[in-house]
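Provenance and format

Records in this collection were gathered into a single text stream. Each protein contributes a sequence line and a token line. The two records reproduced below are adjacent in the stream.
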Amino acid sequence: MTDNRGTVLEPKQARGHETRRKILDATLSLLEDRHFEALTIADIAARAGMAVGNFYKRFKNKEALLPPLYAEYNNRFAAFAGMQHSLQDADPWRAMVETTVGFFEENRGLIRALHLHSRLKPDLVPEGSTAARGSLYRAAEVLVSPDGITQEQRLLKARMAVLMMVSSTVEAVIYPEMTPAVAAAIGREDFVRELVQALKAYAG
């Protein structure tokens, strides 16, 4: 059976690793303005400054880029989620929302590509792609008021708060040109302020 993700051809030399990195960087650069499905191997090779043949020495096809793109995202998200525990701010909910929005803005093309891919082909999402969310849940749990609720309810509230924050940020930042972001017509500052207020009201 053919694996739709393709096969990654692991390089054996330092030059091969450098070529592979150039291809991934070129893909990430192109994703800032275009959808993954719209990219061609010729586009990627041209942006990387190499011949198309060099692409095929490292990757079997375009879909073979997806596993390393997921790995790239997971590394970036893990670093982002991990830093939430060390944030020092008088308004921790605002700090969490600001850093979350900033992370999505900085990685918009990559997140959009993987978000759409995971919706269309969820069975091809690599295992462990959601592992780093635990750090974000734990950081949010600290901010949820423990008054009058059990520890289990507190954890549930933290998870729901993260879901609210991430889902609304996806709509506002990743798909600003689509509904519901277009219909809402909320600027960045207003979005951050209102989301912070909503999370505080929910979390207690």
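Adjacent record:
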Amino acid sequence: MLIGYIRVSKEDQNPDMQIDAFKKFACEKLFFEKISGAKTERAEFDKMISILRPGDTVLVWEISRLGRSAPEMIKIVDEWFKMGVGLKSITEPFVDSSSEWGDFLAKFFLLMADSERKRLIRRTREGLSSARARGRIGGKKKGLTAAAMATAKNAVIFYNSKILTTNEMCSALKISKATLYKYLRYEGVEIAGWVKTPNLNRD
């Protein structure tokens, strides 16, 4: 049975986009709650846990929705895999327990994402402080869909880990090399060995 779990924080955007995405996967059961990840009590999550059986698969928007910290989420994923419960992520296609590397990639990504999240929060705060000092206000980047932006964030995490090759990153994210580089540049990542081609037709 495919079971969907949606958790958004009270500060999150309208959850309709996520709900619409889950409907496309035709989940037999869907659990939704609007609550901060820091909360220890998650009624809907606990309800979902209580009905899980071997052969079930849990579908999430992103695996960070499963818990408050990387160690906690890795423990959850580990327990599910031992039970025979699968895990899939809509915005992280490499997180798929049915694939050969699904278990490893899920745990690896959780560890890297936790570190990268803290680094991004720090850089964002520093950037906003600098922008305010110059009289500018930070804003949301434009040009990518929400799902593409999530993939772009994941691409940065994989790239900065320096563990996977370019082909392995593309395979895990299910994107082409051109798209990978596009996403990395979108996120402001300096790509080793990549040189922007000058526009020779410019007047």
